[in-house]
Design a protein that fits this description.
single chain; about 140 residues; elongated
Length: about 140
């Protein structure tokens, strides 16, 4: 006759087996999650780099269509995504170029009313731009 452990030891053994199975399952899921997060971060970095390349091309004066085509060929990112980014970046780049032109003219002695008339914006807007650009300027 086979000796059976007392009933409370059988329950404890089943509990420990289930616990071990659960811990193994959680460890496998944690490993998968770490790999998935690494893949997501790698993909996000690829998208950030592609957007930076597109922005740089547009900033250098390459027309939007050519910048999109070249970036699409290099990265393989769909054209509709690149077009959306280009539309968002175009307004920002135009504003930054205008702000730089305002600062260049300001440095040559133009007054705020002259700048406001030339760039078709208000004097308060000119003052805000000048204050913002001075605050973010690199100090030697």
């Amino acid at each position: 006759m086979v000796a059976l452990p007392p009933p409370d030891k059988i329950g404890m053994a089943n509990y420990l087996e289930k616990l071990a199975h659960t811990l193994r399952f959680q460890a496998e899921n944690d490993a998968k999650r770490v790999l998935d997060n690494a893949n997501v971060n790698r993909h996000r970095d690829k998208l950030k780099d592609a957007r930076a390349v597109l922005r740089a091309r547009m900033w250098q004066g390459l027309d939007r269509h050519r910048a999109i085509l070249q970036t699409e060929q290099e990265t393989g990112i769909p054209r509709d995504v690149l077009e959306k980014w280009a539309n968002l970046e175009a307004a920002d780049i135009t504003r930054q170029k205008r702000d730089r032109a305002i600062m260049q003219k300001c440095a040559t002695g133009w007054t705020n009313p002259q700048l406001a008339t030339h760039f078709n914006v208000s004097e308060t807007h000119i003052a805000r731009i000048i204050a913002k650009m001075r605050a973010t300027a690199k100090r030697p």
